[in-house]
Amino acid sequence: MLSRKYKTAFGQFVRPLNLALHRLRVNADQMTLAGVVFGGLAGLAFAQDRFPLGGLFLVLSGISDMLDGSLARAAGLASPFGSFIDSVADRFTDCVIFGGLAWHYRETPTLLVVLAGLTGSLLVSYTRARAEGLGVPCDIGLMERPERIICLIAGAFIPISMKPVLWLLAVLSLATAVQRILHARRELNRLDNGKV
Prior knowledge:
- Helix 2 (28-47) packs antiparallel against helix 3 (51-74), helix 2 (28-47) runs parallel beside helix 4 and helix 6 packs antiparallel against helix 7.
- The chain has 196 residues and is an all-alpha fold.
- The protein has helices at residues 2-23, 28-47, 51-74, 80-104, 110-133, 145-157, 162-192.
């Protein structure tokens, strides 16, 4: 939702930063790696009950993740493989972040909520990728990756709110996955019936 609504505005906002990074010979692959590293540090901080620090690393990971694609496009180096690697890195980073939260909540019932959130996060991405692989655009739903990161950042900086945030993230991620499954079924049935 946020990524679709503000994508153009964000591109204009980061253009000067992209140019500066390009002059410093920072490339998209380095930004992708930075996003993974900061995400890993966020997961480690969460595991150690250092939520504000984890939130700070999440902010840095999110900025790196948003900049890698725009930096590649600004440098004229965007490619399908670059997009593929970016998606794989995002999934790995999600697993590390949720792994840290799972470790933190390992002896509480909230662990199940964390695992549900991780499952929903992976399904949101997989359902889109699989649908688009079958020729069905699937850019719908409330809880895409930018929204998930924003929720976790909010929960990290106000630790008392992390459990409700995890519930919200789990429910809306799973709901988004179901929404995409239903959308894909409808569109694939239309294609099968020759109505498109």
